[in-house]
Design a protein that fits this description.
heterodimer, A: mainly alpha, three-stranded antiparallel β-sheet, two-stranded antiparallel ribbon, 3% strand, globular, B: mainly alpha, Rna Polymerase Sigma Factor, Chain: A, Arc Repressor Mutant, subunit A, 2 domains, 8 helices, 71% helix
Chain lengths: 718, 173
């Protein structure tokens, strides 16, 4: 093998020596692009969350498709680079030319030829569709229509309307459920000829009568064995990659990171002291257990789970009728009760009721479906459920078999069929929404055999019944026969993907990177970085009845948390920030989130009354920090009032300590380290320069707080 | 020998970093199978990624290895997006082979040796390699030009490359 590599290297040398293909000087180009990115830093997360443009199929009903829209994301990046370098002089044509660039020079002519040919075909196809609509009337089975509900009101009519506003989604197929009154023989024939799965005895069986394969669960291990397993698997990967993990952090640093990742804030000096005073042999486990049982943990992780559940709707909860606060409260209570993850999932999946906390039929768990329903109804819900609980993005499988997720188009619509007994109502003036259970009568109006139709890749209608992981449920759409979402919860929580997604999400929440990145990108294209570890933890999570706190404990007490954040020469190859596989050989820092900063500040200024309830503190936080506020805004807007400082600042100001001691005390309290000689000198100047001791101490405290959060990771050591 | 980049992040000069390492990264990508345009793009992406994240220099060898790994990650990403399979299965082994070749000067000394060694080949061998790497002729075209079979052309070029390897090692010893 090495000979092959040497041969290839020699050949590349010959290409340079004989072929004249010399390395160019890219310095100016790179620096120019670097400057441009500093001015326009990054794409918004929404763009990253969106499906790749290239994956959208071209619809025969779409009049035109811009060549730019069909460009690979990497090519779009090339476009920006070339434009910034001044190679494009403006206009679409210039942009397109720069998109193709040198890399695609050979394929440019072919690409345009294909585009022109496709355009001609599109026009011909559209003409054909127009003729067919004229001949067959408006209810041709080839056309996507808004399906009716049992009471005659079009189901998902709101999202059907809004789909027309959403240009990228207009091309996408939707489940089509025609009227039951087939006036046209052609339509009846089309339905009759639609490809549908063969009937099975399961169709007739009742839920309880049907045997469900027993879930295979491993023998539960004790915590020490699982933690040792995690360490062993990490160590194995480090050795395989020739990486030496970064040295462990000191106890203070470890304590601080545990506070940050578990409760979203730094420890107070008292909490740090308490940790240090405990026996060294069990202080770490004791701290983790103490924090996992705290209200702060429930509050902090309820926010993080709410973000994951709501997805993009989290940014505009009011627009969709979501009561985010109610959902967070429900999640926090569930965590305080240590509700198992599979039970929590089942409650969220099968909830119905109003998101209005004042309503009689209020159910806070229904907020998830209100958010997931969004604009595209059951399709959006299918995608959201798969992202959250299966760790997969299925949006592409809606139109075609998707090799990246490993799901077929049939499987997508079989999953979608579970979300047909639901109606989400949002009144025009009502700030909240209601999730209702409704009977589903299917595409042919036979509720006992309620299928959905969708357009297959070959353009033909196909029928789908609820099925997940090769497990079918009765085909009836009547709620008295079967509640499809409850059945889905039962099947989903037994799947291996569910366990793996849960472990991956918690691991990523604690360590900044998951085994699979992106966190909802599992599939053949995104293999886990540590497959054995992921599987092992998944098995043990199930064996311990989906106890998320237990999972969290394993991770925090493992070596993954016991490496410093220093980049050493030995851990240099651990580069997930640039697209590499995360090896967890060092502790990855993450930017401070606004809500984390808020917690630290509020604790420092003691705005939360002692003994206040979880709900009260959540309310206070939400009233204090709007969702869109940024950290600099918080510092700037709150600096004048809230950052008065903790009460002990006054005591420090009048204490008989020397200036050196005061400075050291402040540094230890805020930065958990001694000041350097230069810092001490500068700090003493601040103290000496102010007439009022109280103001001087307070000002120095504010400077340290601001500098800590603006300068990123603190210096290690000390 | 070019100077190393200053150790302190505050003193990091992006231009110096790029100038110091870009040739090595570009050649490394070429050896991995990138065409020149793709190597250009990925070299840019590599430095942009590194300069936009925290970067601490641990010396020329570590920095070069780090940049190569970033470049490789980008290559894998691009290949994955385009549905191609990355040709190199064992990147660690490839890296070792590359380090042996490139030494401390991004392979400049070996390329100089290669130029000299090419001149020492027989006319037929040199012509075959010229056609292959300068004119991008196919094996059948080379065989037709030299009036030998395709298999013969393949053997001729393999022997020539082996002679070049030996010659380079002698010159570098």
């Amino acid at each position: 093998m090495n000979g092959d590599y040497e041969d290839r290297i020699l050949e590349s040398g010959l290409q340079e020596v004989l072929g004249g293909q010399y390395p160019p000087d890219l310095t100016a180009k790179i620096l120019q692009e670097l400057d441009r990115r500093r001015v326009f830093p990054a794409e918004s997360p929404e763009l990253l969350d969106s499906p790749p443009v290239v994956s959208w199929p071209v619809s025969p009903l779409t009049p035109s498709v811009s060549p730019v829209a069909a460009v690979d994301p990497a090519d779009r990046q090339a476009t920006r680079r070339d434009v910034s370098a001044g190679t494009a002089t403006g206009g679409v044509a210039a942009s397109v030319r720069s998109v193709t660039g040198r890399r695609r020079s050979n394929s440019r002519v072919m690409g345009w030829s294909v585009a022109v040919a496709s355009g001609v075909l599109l026009v011909l196809f559209a003409a054909g569709i127009y003729v067919s609509r004229t001949a067959w009337g408006p209810r041709s089975p080839l056309l996507v229509q808004s399906p009716p509900s049992s009471d005659g009101v079009p189901v998902e009519s709101e999202q059907a309307d809004s789909q027309l506003d959403s240009l990228p989604h207009r091309d996408m197929p939707s489940p089509w459920v025609p009227d039951t009154d087939f006036s046209s023989p052609d339509e009846s024939a089309a339905i009759a000829s639609a490809s549908r799965p063969p009937s099975s005895p399961i169709q007739e069986a009742h839920v309880e009568d049907r045997p469900v394969p027993a879930e295979v669960r491993s023998e539960p291990w004790d915590d020490a064995r699982i933690i040792a397993f995690v360490d062993q698997m990490l160590d194995q990967q480090w050795r395989q990659h020739g990486v030496t993990p970064a040295p462990p952090p000191n106890d203070s640093q470890w304590c601080q990171r545990v506070y940050q990742r578990l409760v979203g804030r730094d420890p107070t000096p008292d909490e740090l002291r308490q940790f240090r005073n405990e026996p060294s042999g069990r202080r770490r486990a004791a701290l983790v257990d103490r924090l996992l049982e705290s209200d702060d943990y429930a509050s902090y992780w309820s926010e993080r789970w709410a973000d994951a559940l709501l997805g993009s709707a989290a940014k505009q909860p009011d627009r969709w009728g979501i009561d985010r606060q109610g959902l967070e409260q429900y999640l926090a209570t569930s965590m305080q009760e240590n509700k198992s993850y599979d039970q929590l999932t089942a409650e969220l999946l099968s909830a119905s009721g109003s998101s209005d906390p004042e309503a009689v039929d209020h159910d806070a768990a229904a907020n998830f479906l209100v958010a997931a329903w969004g604009r595209e109804g059951s399709i959006a819900a299918t995608d959201r459920v798969s992202r959250v609980w299966l760790g997969k993005q299925l949006v592409c499988a809606r139109c075609h078999d998707d090799p990246s997720s490993g799901w077929s188009q049939d499987e997508f619509w079989q999953l979608n069929a579970f979300f047909q007994q639901i109606k989400v109502h949002r009144g025009p003036e009502d700030p909240f929404a209601v999730v209702k259970d409704v009977d589903f009568h299917g595409g042919t109006g036979i509720p006992q055999d309620a299928e959905i139709f969708y357009r297959g890749q070959d353009g033909r209608l196909r029928a789908a019944y609820p099925e997940f992981g090769s497990q079918s449920i009765p085909r009836s759409g009547l709620l008295t026969d079967v509640h499809r979402r409850q059945e889905l919860a039962r099947l989903l929580t037994r799947s291996a993907d569910f366990r793996r997604a849960a472990v991956n999400r918690v691991w990523a929440g604690l360590l900044h990177y998951g085994f699979i990145e992106p966190i909802d990108g599992a599939g053949p294209d995104h293999r886990p970085s540590h497959p054995e570890l992921l599987d092992g933890l998944s098995e043990q999570l199930a064996a311990h009845d989906f106890d998320l706190k237990r999972l969290t404990r394993w991770i925090i007490l493992s070596r993954a948390f016991d490496v410093s954040d220093q980049r050493t020469a030995e851990s240099w190859m651990d580069t997930p920030e640039t697209g590499g596989t995360p090896l967890f050989a060092r502790f990855y820092t993450e930017p401070t989130r606004s809500m984390d900063l808020h917690r630290s500040l509020m604790l420092a200024v003691r705005t939360r009354p002692a003994g206040s309830t979880l709900q009260a503190s959540t309310l206070a936080r939400r009233s204090w920090t709007p969702s869109s506020v940024s950290i600099p805004q918080i510092i700037d807007t709150q600096g004048s009032e809230s950052m008065i400082g903790p009460p002990w600042l006054d005591r420090l100001a009048v204490s008989p300590m020397s200036a050196d001691q005061k400075v050291e005390h402040l540094f230890r309290a805020v930065l958990d380290r001694k000041p350097t000689a230069r810092e001490a000198t500068a700090a003493k100047l601040v103290l000496a320069d102010r007439m009022n001791d109280h103001l001087a101490v307070r000002e120095l405290w504010q400077i340290l707080i601001a500098s800590r959060n603006r300068s990123g990771p603190r210096p290690s050591g000390a | 020998m070019k100077p190393a980049i200053p150790q302190d992040r505050a003193d990091l000069d992006p231009a110096a970093l790029i100038e110091r390492y870009q040739v090595g990264i570009w050649r490394y990508l070429r050896a991995l199978g990138c065409d020149p345009a793709e190597a250009d793009d990925l070299t840019q992406d590599t430095f942009l990624a590194v300069l936009q994240h925290s970067f601490v220099d641990h010396g020329p060898a570590a920095t070069a290895a780090y940049l190569r790994r970033v470049a490789y990650n980008h290559l894998v990403t691009v290949r994955r997006r385009s549905g191609k399979v990355t040709a190199v299965e064992d990147i660690e082994q490839f890296d070792r082979a590359w380090e042996d070749w490139a030494g401390n000067d991004e392979g400049e000394a070996r390329l100089d040796a290669l130029r000299e060694c090419v001149q020492q080949l027989t006319d037929r061998a040199r012509m075959a390699l010229d056609m292959r790497f300068r004119d991008r002729a196919s094996r059948s075209e080379i065989a037709a030009m030299l009036e030998i079979s395709e298999h013969g052309a393949k053997n001729l070029m393999q022997r020539a490359k082996q002679q070049l390897r030996i010659c380079i090692e002698r010159k570098m010893a």
